[in-house]
Write a structure and sequence with these properties.
By secondary structure, the protein is an alpha+beta fold. The chain has two domains: about 180 residues, no CATH class; about 120 residues. The protein is built from nine helices and ten strands. Strands 1, 2, 7, 8, 9 and 10 form a six-stranded antiparallel sheet that branches. It starts with a helix and ends with a helix. The C terminus is likely disordered.
């Protein structure tokens, strides 16, 4: 972290790119967040007496064990280089932040955090040196996350970056990384206009369904929820509320980031946007399920009004005219 990370972020690594740009293409948004998740130690209860006597005489091993990282055994107390100087507090995450699970453990979105500024390399190096000298990382550390948000102006996309180093209970360090790009301007160009029109039709159709279902609910009362399609529509309503919540959270976070830029804050507070790609993925999945439920209900309405049966007749007559033209037997086509 004190070497390549600071050099890439704070030095002009590409000629003409300017400080704060990564490889000349992406700009760093409001610094970098360093977060660690720690576990509570406990005495090694299952150690044989002969082994404990053998390995603790030298004073190096004090009989403390550091378990696999789980949400329930996460350390949340202040700590520091000694018992009288506990300078590192535990910080709770935002309500929408997501936890992380790997083969080595489960890590919450909270932890012990410090932020590096956007352009002040001297201050960033001082923070790194301070935390290293005061033993910010030790045997209780189970994972270290380095989060940053980059903006790619040419593609108009945010890039959520996470560098991750895990220290499993067996020892050693396992590193991994995640880069997820998120489009911020959805309705751009011809394809964007087509998507906007389709979504507008979707909203109009959904509004019509809601009106019909509300009328049925007023008419049937409690009997409405006892029907299969009543439960389907209630499920769709819950999914709709989830969808609205996802959109609002994403909009608020993006607007907060844009407001920081408009105010010209070079060293503004770090804004955690790593959860946005996950929210967008959930948004897409919920929208897919809602589409299935809505169009299933559409076909149900069609069957009730015999519109689907009429459509089948039109298709059959068209096929009956086309098949003889192709030289196929009508009876074979009918059975097919």
């Amino acid at each position: 972290m004190e070497g390549p990370l600071l050099a890439v972020v704070y030095d002009e690594d590409t000629p003409g790119s300017g400080v704060g740009n990564v490889l000349g293409y992406a700009g760093l948004c409001n610094g970098i967040r360093v977060r660690q998740v720690r576990v509570k130690p406990h005495k090694c209860e299952r150690m044989p007496e002969w082994a404990q006597n053998a390995i603790t005489q030298q004073g190096g091993f004090q009989g403390d064990c550091y378990p696999r990282a789980e949400i329930w055994n996460e350390e949340k107390d202040r700590f520091g280089p000694n018992s009288t100087s506990k300078i590192f507090p535990w910080t709770e995450s935002s309500s929408w932040a997501l936890s992380t699970s790997t083969i080595f453990g489960s890590y919450s979105a909270s932890g012990y955090i410090f932020d590096l500024p956007s352009f002040n390399k001297t201050r960033a190096r001082e923070l790194m040196s301070f935390h290293r000298q005061n033993r910010f990382l030790d045997l209780q550390t189970r994972a270290v996350f380095i989060d940053a948000t980059l903006f790619h102006p040419q593609m108009e996309r945010f890039v959520s970056m996470r560098l991750q180093a895990e220290i499993p209970e067996s020892g050693g360090v396992e590193t991994s990384y995640v880069f997820i790009s998120t489009r911020i301007n959805t309705y751009v160009g011809v394809l964007g206009m087509i998507q906007l029109i389709i979504e507008a039709i979707f909203v109009i159709q959904l509004s019509g369904f809601c009106f019909v279902e509300i009328m049925q609910l007023r008419k049937m009362g409690v009997e409405y929820v006892k029907r299969f399609w009543g439960m389907v529509m209630l499920t769709k309503g819950v999914l709709l509320l989830c969808l609205v919540g996802f959109r609002v959270i994403t909009f608020q976070t993006l607007e907060k980031q844009r407001r920081e830029w408009d105010e010209g804050k070079d060293s503004a507070e770090f804004i955690d946007m790593h959860h946005i790609p996950s929210i967008i993925l959930l948004d897409d999945n919920v929208l897919a399920v809602m589409s299935i439920l809505i169009y299933a209900r559409l076909f149900k309405y069609g069957a009730e009004t015999k519109a689907i049966a009429h459509l089948y007749k039109v298709i059959y007559k068209s096929m009956a005219e086309i098949i003889p033209f192709l030289g196929m037997h009508p009876r074979a086509s009918r059975s097919a």
